[in-house]
Amino acid sequence: MQANNWGYQDISAPKARTLRQVPAARGLVVEDVQSGWVGAVVRIEKSGGMHIMELADRREKVRAFPLGFGFLVDGEPVEIVAPVAAAAPQKATRTASGSVRVEGLRAQVAKASRIWVEGKHDAELVEKVWGDDLRVEGIVVEPLRGVDDLTAAVKAFGPGPDRRLGVLVDHLVPHSKESRIVADLMKSPAAKKNVLVVGHPYVDVWQAIKPATLGIPAWPVIPRTVEWKLGILQAFGWPHSTAEDIGLGWQRLLSRVNSYSDLEPSLLGRVEEVIDFLTAPVS
User: Fold this and answer.
1) Are 214 and 255 in contact (CB under 8 A)?
2) Which of 147, 196, 198, 265 has the smallest C-beta neighbourhood within 10 Å, fewest atoms?
3) pTM exceeds 0.70
């Protein structure tokens, strides 16, 4: 009788309006106190101006009930109400690089100008953060597979006022091999005015991801006798024996990058500098 008393009181007594409201979400287990029917919500529909929910019991038999009072959830008297429609997600107004998103603009046909980066991972990181911006500008990112032959590659590219080249170099610090290669390149007539070489201080572009983005206090220090990427994966306790392991490890790291705020400023500034150089009006 107590259950029935709850049911009748829920319908007629004004104070029952203070019961907790529970949306009729699919899968919610509900008991009708008058009939004793217990079942999970499998369907909600509106009929004749009234919301109806269908409850399927453990034998998969289904009964329909109008929403409202007279129900228990986990033994608690509640009011079952219609589920609130989820609000449509707001469109992002900014790209991953922080630029204002341009809506409705198709990607431009690729220009002759290019951004060169050292490897596949560099290209994937630049694409993930600056991809929207680059498609608007019609700029393509290409991996070099290293910079040992950079001077010859630039000469073969044939830079010019309408065919500029921006190069992002890893570990571009004083007295490094990379700094000597870049210095030799910039002596070449092919590089004058139409080539910009910038770099970051990291051994590998992986380090341009902020440690906090990965939930670590700092990147592990790897001895010079150990190949850097293998050492990093080993320090993380991840598989590190094969090229496939390295690729999968990189994808795990890249998945943590959602926007420019996940990267170090020393990389952000250099990529922005290259994009500005390639998109500046020809003088």
Assistant:
1) no
2) 265
3) no
